[in-house]
Amino acid sequence: MKKITIQEMPKHVGETVKMGAWLANKRSSGKIAFLQLRDGTGFVQGVVVKAEVSEEMFATAKGLHQETSLYVVGEVTEDTRSAFGYELQVKEIQVISESTDYPITPKEHGTEFLMDHRHLWLRSKKQHAKMKVRNELIRATYEFFNDNGFVKMDPPILTASAPEGTSELFHTKYFDEDAFLSQSGQLYAEASAMALGKVFSFGPTFRAEKSKTRRHLIEFWMIEPEMAFVEHDESLEVQEQFVSHIIQSALKNCKLELEILGRDISKLEKVKAPFPRISYDDAIEFLHKEGFDDIKWGDDFGSPHETAIANHYDLPVFITCYPTGIKPFYMQPHPDRDDVVLCADLIAPEGYGEIIGGSERIWDYDLLKQRIEEHGLDQEAYNWYLDLRKYGSVPHSGFGLGLERTVSWVTGADHVRETIPFPRLLNRIYP
Prior knowledge:
The chain is α+β, with helices and mostly antiparallel strands. It has helices at about 55-60, 110-115, 120, 125-145, 185-195, 230-255, 255-260, 265-270, 280-290, 305-315, 365-375, 385-390, 405-410, and strands at about 15-30, 30-40, 45-50, 70-80, 85-95, 150, 160, 170-175, 175-180, 200-205, 220-230, 275-280, 315-320, 345-350, 355-360, 395-400. The chain contains 13 helices and 16 strands.
């Protein structure tokens, strides 16, 4: 007898198969028991008909507790009433391990309770769906960059300096030296691009930012490409092609998961390159017309400002050329203005905020050295970074996409804490 997964059931209609599963839920009448089964690849209903199994087997089915692990044998049949489209006509049940008093029952639980039990909450249908979408965005990311000639490079997690010159870093000791957990792999990706042309990194980053908003995590994952001989406008084209690709991949390969989450996919179906663009100057003017009198030129945008701009377009929108004073030291100045830089943030619609930050990088040695001094940074710590401008410097650009914010947008999640398996928040490092 063939052992299969729930995901493989469509290939075995009419066959009797064996599956390992956990009992997610159950209900029963006098003559039929309906078992909601899950195996990690998906969820399916198992139907146990009293007249078709032994009395002992039917009693076992009715007495099962939530999250008990099982081997089940049954026939795969089509079921047009379910979103999955299939169910299992169960003939045999073998209990592997009993589960009693499972803490997450089919009722409402508070957020803190669920977060305390995150190791178990991941088993639920909606959390499972979010993780499957996350996985698809990761798969599609590798697909996009591999298909477009990028090389994966892995920057260090322990660093001697701050890429963006902030104080929001986690400090540690590296034997007898100071070190920090990385807040970005960008500078190392730039060095890699000077060796390999087009590269991308994909790894964990850390921000000691004391923020409790629904968009912030202490530890999160960033996708950070860097491209030699690529200028600002060319980089924007890569960004919109990349985002279009991963969104369309999610729509194609996670249709069931998005349906489970109740996501309005019509919003996502419109996400195709090119994306609208608005300059920072024009964004300020737009916000004033919309009644945001609190914002003035030189201020960074907050969540309400970004939401108003994105909702106007109902698509991801690039806000370009921010003031020099509110952006990191390494961004290339605008060729015609000294008060703005060649950069852009990509703002997702529906209130999900910035998902990408990117820029053309300063490639002139003297200017970069000047910027390091102006920002009060330790030049010695950046000597290796300055070397990239000493030995064959070229125009180059890059960007960083936050995975969890993007998963939040695609899945319609209320908070980024549900888009990473084990979130690290200002008040949470357990489990």
